[in-house]
């Protein structure tokens, strides 16, 4: 070492590092989403595949474009834009026009992430903001559902997918009627429950079908089982806080349970509430977004319970059959406040200090 | 071992903390050996927390091993003893591990001298009053050997309005790599018990608990056997977790008491000492001798003969490394443990009273720990769940980046951070959080001094 003494390393403690790096965490979230994507493609065929590719491409290229414009090194390789793309596709109806999906991806990344300073600075979940935008802009397209397991799904697109940019998609009711799937209308379990079918009110779908994903719905929201398994992988690797989905699902269960006990005829069963629509995907992959959720141990419970409660209230009393998206966006907005109000009690101090900044 | 123990139930611990890899296998099972004397020793006058000692020798003076070289300057100071027989070559500025050069005594050894300790006379501890004991402790030059280097006698003097009921003896050794306390507990358990008796007598405590992490079952067994039958000294088995050995964590784990923010353990009736400190005290005090050597873990992938060595204080780092052999790619030296220890910039710095370990890392070891890309905080809350004092390092880190040092202190309890490094250890964004906090504290301190 005598002749090497000029290159002794100097670093500050701690000299050991553990933790997966940010890109490793993000990559693992992508891994966890891939089985759900695969199931979506199996269920809805070519259109779902195209939808996933288009949103992912839209998100990554938007991020790349803005990195170029601002003269910063690219941040696409941290995989967070890929997550946004995948999540966005999974929340859209499988036959959603591809050009609209690209718009949603662009808005999600540009308006929610890049404008606020990139990864770590987004206040809202980018995928949900993208979806909220197209929900407002294209209300018909986003509520047009197509049946799962159509026989020709691997050889032909759902007609609405290929709508030309800036064009309104053709109505696909006739196309749906041509599909030989038994007794299927294309309505989602949530819509059936809320608005009924024909002259029947509140049609409930079988819980087992909901659990396994044998229903129609958004591309990746149908199988509660698969979402739970993928979420468990992330939770076991400590790359997702299991408390958030637990709190959100409990919040939804309790709220729905209260209404169900009050009037089982008018309100859906709590288990149906958990298994239907975007509740599972929202709880496991959206609400648990690290960046837009509180960091304090008590805060994550408050945050989760609040989202679960709001989602059910919107579902039951709003004009829309689904409320998970708005509930999570509201939770994101409230998260700094929740964090500030739930700062942990520091060792050796009596009172919690409530910072007001 | 019953089921409760297997599941870890009933073992004392605190909430939060981290589980770094231990790296203790090689050195924990081999006996303490003595390192040979270096031909020259460097003895900084400030090896303790408090005022530097005042030299009582002059250049060219012959000194004998164990002789007093410098006296304490005031209450918060301790004397310094000669680690070897030789001649004072110089008293002047020399490099130290902390960075700036400080006033030091340089001792040149006489070759071929037996290096016996000639100083000292037996004294009977049992007959001494607490005041006399505290004075005697001070005369040994003893400081906290765990790393803080706080003068031990100052810890033993309990403020008038406080009463101490328990002495906690810290044998946790939660830092990875280090095994000095482990070996000391195994090999010098009788000296340790004498030291505990001194601490109990000086502080007026009725009982003592030796806290040991459960990764040292042999040490637990050895001490359970050695503890006297009266039951006043017991062994508290603690979970292996970092930073279990931090004073405040230990008090919480073993006694479920919390030291009030900004106060000392005596405020909750506890006095905490490291096992190495009490062991040395137990060996030196009955003989009226001074602290001249200590056990140091010298280890890491870069060292050829790792182990625990009895090293004379003042031995230069270069001499240690040349004696034990190092690999060619060794290029990172740490004094202390890997979680809280400091990098060393020069090989000419000496081993001082507070150094419990020397870690030599190589390129290979480093490549696993390469300085990673720093990302923005993604609010993953890993740090919030790791901080043993329940701070919010994520929030503090964002404030530090915005230079809101005042807010950090006033609203987010910055001063309760004891810089254990858990937050930085778990950060996936590789943000140097604890370094931010050190800087923030230093700036706040400077601002306060400027105002005062």
Specify Rg of chain A, calculated over alpha carbons: 22 Å
Q: What is the structural class of chain A?
A: mainly alpha
Number of helices of chain B: 16
How confident is the prediction overall: mean pLDDT of chain B?
Answer: 89
β-strand amount of chain A: under 5%
Largest interface, and how many residues on either side? A-B, 48 and 73 residues
* CA-based shape of chain A: globular
Distance between the termini of chain A: 52 Å
Distance between the termini of chain B: 58 Å
**Annotation, overall tally of beta strands of chain B:** 17
The backbone outline of chain B, from C-alpha atoms, is globular
- Helix fraction of chain A? 40-55%
Rg of chain B over CA atoms, rounded to whole Å, is 22 Å
Low-confidence stretches of chain B: none
In total, the number of strands of chain A is 0
Task: Describe the protein in words.
Chain A is mostly helical and 357 residues long. Chain A has two domains: 158 residues, no CATH class; 137 residues, no CATH class. Chain A is built from 14 helices and no strands. In chain A, helix 3 runs parallel beside helix 5 and helix 5 packs across helix 14. Chain A is globular, with a radius of gyration of 22 Å. By secondary structure, chain B is of the alpha/beta class. Chain B has three domains: 195 residues, Rossmann fold; 164 residues, Ubiquitin-like (UB roll); 70 residues, no CATH class. Chain B contains 16 helices and 17 strands. In chain B, the strands form four sheets. Chain B has a six-stranded mixed β-sheet with strand order 1-14-13-17-15-16. In chain B, a hairpin with a 6-residue loop joins strand 15 and strand 16. The radius of gyration of chain B is 22 Å and the shape is globular. Chain B starts with a helix and ends with a helix. At the A-B interface, helix 1 of A face strand 15, strand 16, helix 12, helix 15 and helix 16 of B.
């Amino acid at each position: 070492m005598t002749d090497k003494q000029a290159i002794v390393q100097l670093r500050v403690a701690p000299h050991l590092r553990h933790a997966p790096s940010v890109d490793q965490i993000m990559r693992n979230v992508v891994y966890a989403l891939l089985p759900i994507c695969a199931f979506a493609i199996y269920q809805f065929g070519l259109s779902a595949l195209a939808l996933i590719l288009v949103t992912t491409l839209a998100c990554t290229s938007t991020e790349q474009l803005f990195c170029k414009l601002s003269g910063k090194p690219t941040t696409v390789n941290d995989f967070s834009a890929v997550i946004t793309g995948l999540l966005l596709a999974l929340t859209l109806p499988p036959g959603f026009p591809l050009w609209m999906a690209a718009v949603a991806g662009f808005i999600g990344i540009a308006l929610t992430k890049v404008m606020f300073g990139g990864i770590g600075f987004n206040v809202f979940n980018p995928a949900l903001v993208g979806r909220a935008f197209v929900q407002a802009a294209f209300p018909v397209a986003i509520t047009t559902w197509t049946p799962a397991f159509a026989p020709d799904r691997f050889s032909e697109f759902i007609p609405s997918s290929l709508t030309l940019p800036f064009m309104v998609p053709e109505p696909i009711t006739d196309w749906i009627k041509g599909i030989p799937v038994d007794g299927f209308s294309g309505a989602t379990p949530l819509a059936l429950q809320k608005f009924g079918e024909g002259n029947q009110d509140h049609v409930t779908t079988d819980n087992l079908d909901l659990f396994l994903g044998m229903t129609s719905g958004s591309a990746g929201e149908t199988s509660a089982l698969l979402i739970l398994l993928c979420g468990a992988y992330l939770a076991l690797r400590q790359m997702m806080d299991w408390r958030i989905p637990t709190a959100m699902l409990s919040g939804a269960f309790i709220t729905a349970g209260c209404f169900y006990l009050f009037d089982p005829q008018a309100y859906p069963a709590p288990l149906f509430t958990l298994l239907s629509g975007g509740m599972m995907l929202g709880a496991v992959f959206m609400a648990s977004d690290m960046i837009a959720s509180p960091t304090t141990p008590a805060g994550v419970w408050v945050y989760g319970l609040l989202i679960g409660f709001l989602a059910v209230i919107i579902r039951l009393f709003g004009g829309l059959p689904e409320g998970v998206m708005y509930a999570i966006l509201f939770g994101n907005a409230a998260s700094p406040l929740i964090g500030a109000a739930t700062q942990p009690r520091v060792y050796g101090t009596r009172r919690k200090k409530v910072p007001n900044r | 071992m019953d089921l409760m123990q297997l599941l870890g139930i009933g073992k004392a611990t605190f909430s939060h903390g981290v589980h770094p890899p231990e790296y203790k296998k090689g050195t924990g099972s081999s006996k303490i050996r003595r390192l040979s004397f270096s031909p020259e020793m460097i003895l900084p006058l400030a090896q303790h927390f408090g005022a530097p000692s005042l030299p009582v020798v002059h250049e060219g003076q012959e000194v004998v091993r164990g002789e007093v070289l410098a006296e304490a300057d005031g209450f918060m100071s301790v004397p310094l003893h000669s680690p070897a027989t030789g001649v004072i070559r110089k008293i002047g500025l020399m490099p130290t591990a902390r960075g700036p050069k400080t006033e030091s005594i340089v001792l040149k050894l006489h070759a071929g001298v037996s290096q016996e300790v000639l100083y000292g006379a037996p004294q009977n501890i049992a007959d001494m009053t607490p005041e006399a004991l505290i004075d005697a402790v001070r005369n040994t030059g003893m400081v906290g050997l765990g790393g803080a280097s706080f003068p031990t006698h100052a810890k033993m003097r309990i403020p008038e309005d406080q009463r101490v009921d328990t002495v906690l003896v810290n044998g946790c050794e939660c830092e990875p790599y280090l095994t000095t306390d482990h070996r000391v507990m195994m090999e010098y358990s009788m000296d340790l018990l004498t030291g505990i008796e001194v601490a109990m007598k000086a502080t007026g405590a009725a009982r003592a608990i030796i806290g040991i992490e459960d990764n040292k079952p042999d040490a637990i067994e050895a001490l359970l056997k050695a503890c006297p039958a009266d039951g006043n000294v017991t062994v508290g088995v603690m979970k292996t977790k970092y930073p279990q050995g931090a004073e405040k964590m230990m008090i919480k784990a073993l006694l479920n008491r919390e030291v009030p923010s900004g106060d000392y353990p005596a405020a909750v009736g506890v006095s905490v000492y490291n096992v190495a400190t009490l062991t040395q005290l137990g060996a030196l005090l009955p003989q009226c001798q001074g602290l001249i050597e200590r056990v140091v873990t010298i280890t890491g992938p870069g060292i050829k003969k790792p182990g625990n060595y009895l090293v004379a204080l003042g031995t230069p780092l270069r001499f240690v490394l040349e004696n034990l052999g190092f690999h060619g790619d060794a290029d990172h030296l740490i004094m202390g443990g890997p979680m809280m220890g400091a990098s060393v910039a020069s090989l000419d710095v000496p081993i001082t009273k507070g150094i419990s370990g020397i870690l030599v890392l190589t390129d290979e070891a480093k490549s696993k720990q390469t300085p990673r890309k720093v990302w923005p905080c993604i609010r993953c809350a890993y740090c919030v769940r790791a901080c043993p004092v329940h701070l919010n390092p994520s929030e503090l880190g964002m404030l530090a980046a915005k230079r809101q040092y005042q807010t950090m202190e006033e609203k987010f309890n910055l001063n309760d951070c004891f810089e254990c490094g858990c937050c930085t250890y778990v950060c996936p964004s590789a943000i140097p959080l604890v370094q931010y906090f050190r800087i923030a504290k230093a700036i706040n301190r400077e601002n306060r001094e400027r105002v005062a």
